[in-house]
Amino acid sequence: MSIDLKTIKHISKLSRISVDEPKGQKLAEDLNSIFKFIEKLNQLKTDNVEPLTSVAETTLKLRADEVKSKDIREQIIKNSPQDNEDYFVVPKVIE
What we know:
The protein has helices at residues 5-14, 21-42, 73-77. By secondary structure, the chain is mainly alpha-helical. Helix 1 (5-14) crosses helix 2 (21-42). The longest helix is centred in the N-terminal third of the chain and has 22 residues, at 21-42. The radius of gyration is 30 Å and the shape is elongated.
């Protein structure tokens, strides 16, 4: 597949962008090099290759779910804007 200046002008008209002659020529060259690279990628044999979720094949380290801070309820409730024994009381946000 090869893109020429005529195709670039047609694409720019369809996308409603203005492309002058030098930029159009540069854009055509860039698109042609991209298409050449895609053609090279299409030649690769990937039949027996497993899909990757990440390039770095690492496994996540799991840790035990432990409670590290106990009996801090009173300290947390002290941060409430209004005094209350059981829960946070905050100003009304939606009327």
